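[STRUCTURE TOKENS]
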Amino acid sequence: MLVIDAISEILKKEGVKYLSAFPTTSVIEAAAESGIKPIICRQERVGVGIADGYSRITGGNPPGVFAMQYGPGAENAYPGVATAFADAVPMLFLPLGHRRDRDRIFPHFNSVDSFSTVTKYVEQINGIDSVVDTMRRAFYRLKNGRPGPVMVEIPIDIADKEVDQESIAQYKKAITTRSSSDEDAVLRVAQNILTSNAPLLYAGQGVLYSGASKELQELAELTKIPVATTMAGKGSIDERHPLSLGSSSTVMNGAVLHYMKTSDTVIAVGTSLTKHGMITTIPEGKNIIHVTNDPIDIGNYYQPSDALQGDAKLVLKQLIEACADLLSTREAPESPEDQIREMKLEWKKSWQKKLTSKESPMTPYRVISEFMNATNPAENIVTHDSGSPRDQIMPFYESGGPGTYLGWGKSHGLGTGLGLNMGAKLASPEKFVVNFMGDAAFGMTGLDFETAARSGIPILTVVLNNSTMAIETSHMASSHELYNTRDLGGDYADMAKAMGGWSERVDNPEEIKDAFLRAKQATENGQAALLEFITSEEQDFSFRGILR
């Protein structure tokens, strides 16, 4: 058995079903022959995104895997890997490496060194006897602790060497381990929570990865504490739940803003609490209780009043038990459900003019509103691209619980959403999987719509086409006045048809809902679909930058 075949057998033992890739790499052939389906992308960044989106839905079990050639392939993959690292996505990268006699010799691109800053773990297979050990280490690191991308480089002069088949047969699937927190600390935190005047649960992506949504909801219902989520944590709770406030990033709805400002205690669960332009900054003066599985997060950006280290699911179970014991001798807290509902209604009312606008070109908010009216959030997976689409959809769209929204953005390269969309569809083929992106984002990666059409991945891509980079209006005022630097062009619906997909171009706001229903039907018929909406240069955002 060749080394490359041995690696494919190990991938199969770990439950890997798909390999996104771009030639030339022998991993493609080896994977196909072992029963793993290759998805060949048009450029590496999107291929990484496919593996990324898959892993976000599966929680890395099994992980998305991307393979590419050494040199330019690895170089082109870097931005996608950086995005996965910033958002802590558990996935595997398998670049080929230069021959060992040329490795690390100028001017060859060195993947091991270059990717070490954007991966959780990186290792080169340095001999035929180290294949099993290297792959075992990679999968154990991928499955345990803080999530993140793991990379194994396969030198091209090792890939076709013979390896002991018996050693591969003895490979065992990596085990995932989880830890709870100190019981005394849990009791102390529970007492702190229940004596707070205005506590707030703030859930991050770690809740999704640990499968802790049920426990998050149970703790909220037990203690009557409202729940907000980070953008990456969107879907940690069904946002139609009466205790759900919604999600926050650089934008948010009125209910999230109110509770962020007025809460005295923030119980942050499964979030790093990183300070970043796409993440809400917690106002000063809060009592912060930080629950995370990685000690590097604790005290990194905020001074916590207390902290619990451990898996989100296990720690939430501990908190539920401790709070239930304490509440057995106390009066039940008053529920804020009525206040939350009224705040949401009041905020949404202030946006009704935008959400129901009959203006042409149409506002993106009308598109988003009609999408929400036409679909069931529990049956969708929705993601956004960077820029205006992210900030427009995120506060308004109510996700239907875990695995129904992919919020991303600590590293926010334009065009990322298209790959995420394809990966999510592979992971959940029964869902209606939709990505909202702008025309600038489509210009970055749009040719990979053909990958979806060719590979039988029936996603919906929504292009909000305003023929300009509206988000840059203030940043490029002079250059645009002199040289029209913000303006863009293109008929993206025609492009989608040319690439083998179903598409429509919509410029009448009264046709939005029916267009979504037709697009949904197209995806159910197995077609990759694209809707291009001709929109205005929308400049209004919900409380954008107010907590930064």
The chain has a mean pLDDT of 96. Residues 362 and 535 are 5 Å apart (CA to CA).
